[in-house]
Amino acid sequence: MADASRRLVVVRHAKSAWPKGVPDAQRPLNERGRRDAPAAGRWLRRHVEHIDAVRCSPAVRTRQTWELLSAMLDTAPDPVCDARLYGAAADMLLTIVRELPDDAGCAMLIGHNPGMADIVTLLTGESPKMRTSAIAVLRLAMGWKKASPGGAALVAHATPRG
User: Could you tell me the pTM of the whole model?
Assistant: First the structure.
């Protein structure tokens, strides 16, 4: 599978709370986020056959998004928390994509804006709105290691709400 097409699912975390005195990385999902994350999971269950690998920011809100989203999937891999995803710019996200496992036909990144929007734009040349809980599904013609600017197509975009 080294050079077969791949699908990359880019997810922006669900809506988070802003509790006073809580550091940014520790902010949890708010009530709307706890409703929207499962809706995102239901959308993925209908539109993405399976997910082989997940790279998730270590922030509380991204991990909670994955937990609620993945509970709606038929099967879900264990996520790998990657500190580089927290606040990452598109060039770092591209590095992370290039490091995805060769045997993963479909992988997911769960992170934050502006990085999630920027990686979609970098890879596809398109700029869909990446609001909280937004999902962009990209098709890469080549393997992960060959991911490059303009080397993907945006095949689906949604912002599921619960």
Answer: 0.95
